[in-house]
Amino acid sequence: MKKKMVIIGIASVIGVVIVIMIILFTTKTTTLALQVETATVKKGNICTVVTATGTIQPIKQVNVGTQVSGVVQKIYADYNSKVKAGQLIAELDKTNLKALVSESKASYFTALNELDYLQKVFNRQESLYKNKVISEADYEESLYKLNNAKGAVEQRESDLQRAETNLGYADIYSPIDGVILTKSVDVGQTVAASFSTPTLFTIAQDLSEMQVEANVDEADIGNVTEGQRVTFTVDAFPGENFSGKVTQVRLNGTVKSNVVTYTVVITAENPKQKLKPGLTATISIYTVELNNTNVVEAAAMDYQPDPAQVSKYNAQTGIPVALSATQNNAAALPATPDNGMMKTVWLLDKAGIHQKQILVGKSDRVNVQVLEGLKEGDKVVTGISMAAATTASGTSDSSSANSPFMPAPPGKKK
User: Fold this and answer.
1) pLDDT of 184-193, one tens digit each?
2) What residues contact 250, with CB distance under 8 A and at least 6 apart?
3) CA distance 267 to 226
4) What is the pLDDT of residues 13-71, one digit of tens each?
5) How many percent of the chain have pLDDT more than 90?
6) Is the dihedral of CA 112, 117, 122, 124 positive or negative?
7) pLDDT at 105
8) E-assigned strands of 7-159?
9) 390 DSSP β-pair partners
10) 116 part of a folded domain
11) Residues 297 and 371 in one domain
12) Which CATH number do you get for residue 369?
């Protein structure tokens, strides 16, 4: 019995020793390794867009009014009527205007008759004066009356022309080829042109081409120029995009609720005449469009790593590189607003992490155009962080500490 107990005790001790040995040989230790985050230079597109809202209007719109007062007698056009230049579209009552013409004619002919009479009197007086039959005062009086008669004829002639012109104004003609947008009068309505010209019709010249007057914020107007491509939508046709281009950037700003905006005029083709005057358009103006160009993430432009981390990572590669080393042989162009701007980035290559001066162009705040200094496939550092790695006691995990640029030890698989 005692012998059996001894055997059990020895077995228990051996089991404990084995467990302890397993724990000791399988205990893992945690180390910290540097992890580099990069952005790859690749082919991509740069696109910046300015958004705004505006109202669709005809390119040319004319308000047709009348210069004389009267009662509307006839109307020959209605809403949406197509009219030609010179076409009669309305008439005013001409009774009073015709009477005024007759009165002016009578006054004119009376003045002509008076002039003819006084001309004959003057001719007799002049002959008598030359023969010294009458006095100089009598001669001058006849000349004075003749000149007054001439002035009266000119005045009556002017009155007659004015009366005839006003009679002509009673016929309202279309000044352009177009479509009637609004009709503000009806037959029997009295229009008064005493102080201002009343609007009878509004005519749009051509609805196959429209314009949008967009209000662009002062923060964006500096990027908008004539000729830029525009797309816009209207609520009347959801999901359908219309195209146009910027034709005018007006210089006069408008202040409303302390917000300054500028009017940008956009022309758009309207062959199917879906776009109607007055529709509200939501507009996208493409201020920058670059396709299939070398780009890199914008985050790489302003990244500044910890020098100690850079030195440590470079030491891990086995190829020490001076922190101040800068390669600038690719950026030959001087930096100007036209050809780009100089930037310094941190490049990751076979030499480890080092600085590189490059020339960049346009940016859409996500990507930046690379003009000089980097080629497609280059990796630019955007972050360095410590990554945890575990290894078994008594062993080393070279995969967690070695750089991808270092060869693996003999006997190890890469």
Assistant:
1) 999 999 998 8
2) 262, 263, 264, 265
3) 11
4) 676 667 566 655 554 444 556 788 899 999 999 999 999 999 999 999 999 999 999 99
5) 61
6) positive
7) 96
8) 28-40, 42-58, 61-65, 70-75, 82-83, 88-92
9) 30
10) yes
11) yes
12) 2.40.420.20
CB 354 within 8 A of CB 386: no
How many residues belong to the chain?
A: 414
Please list the residues that pair with 388 across neighbouring strands: 32
Of the residues 169, 185, 218, the one at which a domain ends: 169
Considering the domain architecture, whether residues 41 and 109 belong to the same structural domain is answered as no
402's tokens: 């070695």
Assigned token pair, 106: 């009578």
Q: Which two tokens stand for residue 180?
A: 């009637």
Instruction: At 265, list the tokens.
Output: 């005029």
> Which residues constitute the domain of residue 107?
94-169
Q: Domain count of the chain? A: 2
Alpha carbon 187 to its chain's center: 44
At 319-366, the pLDDT tens digits run 655 444 444 444 444 545 456 789 899 999 888 888 999 999 988 888
Separation CA 319–CA 279 (nearest Å):
66
